[in-house]
Amino acid sequence: MMMVIFGPPGAGKGTQADLLSQKYNFVKFSMGDILREEMALSSPIGTQLKKYLNRGMLAPDDVVLHLVENFLLKHQGTNILFDGFPRNINQARNLQKIVSRFGNSLDIALEMHLSGKKLIKRLVNRTYCPHCGRLYNYATNPPKVEGICDACGYALEKRRDDDEAIIKKRLDVYEEETRKLTNFYKSQNIYYRVDANGSQIEVLKKISQIVDAHIDKK
Ligand code: ADP
Q1: Residues 191, 108: contact at Cβ < 8 Å?
Q2: Is 159 known to be catalytic?
Q3: Percent helix, strand and coil across the chain, each rounded to 5?
């Protein structure tokens, strides 16, 4: 099975992608994580990427498409969950081409919906552990000791793009580019939408209903 999750920054895509890949047999492809890994390597591509990500802009399509192809080559024959990819129509069209070249097709394109005010609140309060990747939120899900990861004891950090001005830019990019995926996937008859309000477990339940119905159909 191939599934895409899209939605504005802060909707909880990464969290749900982790929960879904634990619950079902998905290999997760997180474009944001892969791009941040490239940046941490300070490779020529990583240095180029910083100019985009640190301003809240999308990375160039040729770079992200190349990363997706490499990933699919390595994971042929597995169920894949795409988190944060595609983010515009060009990426969506290319994903379809790439996937069909591998003899596959997308089954579910899920939009996670949340209003702008709530998104900003979630993102400005977000913090994460650079060691184990665990996410925290000072408003809703704080660590037991401020600034320290409960799981591994490392010092927590803030993502550089979780700064209010950059968050606003990321939300604008979402409205201008990624929102168009709704009609694109509706026309392919694989579009679903969930309300991303509520606890992680509540949202997981709603998404699981969609995935389960799909598995039953097969
Ligand atoms: P969020 O969804 O909360 O913005 P991500 O970690 O998924 O967080 O993405 C962080 C940043 O990585 C985005 O703001 C964008 O600059 C870049 N990025 C992620 N996915 C893509 C993509 N498919 N195409 C281009 N850039 C991307």
Answers
A1: no
A2: yes
A3: 50, 15, 35
Q: State whether residue 136 is helix, strand or coil.
A: strand
| Residues 6+ away with beta carbon under 8 Å from 77 | none
Who lines ligand 1 at CB under 6 A?
9-10, 13, 31-32, 35, 52-53, 56-59, 64, 84-87, 91, 161, 170
Per annotation, catalytic residue among 121, 159, 179, 186: 159
Closest C-alpha residue for ligand 1 atom 7: 32
How much is the pTM?
A: 0.92
How far is the C-alpha of 162 from the C-alpha of 185, rounded, in Å? Answer: 28
The conformation of residue 49, written as its DSSP 8-state character, comes to H
Residue type, 11: A
The alpha carbon dihedral of 194, 199, 200, 204 has a sign of: negative
The 10s digit of each residue's pLDDT in 79-131 is 999 999 999 999 999 999 999 998 899 999 999 999 888 999 999 999 999 99
Instruction: Determine the Cα–Cα distance for residues 129 and 127; give it in Å rounded to an integer.
Output: 7
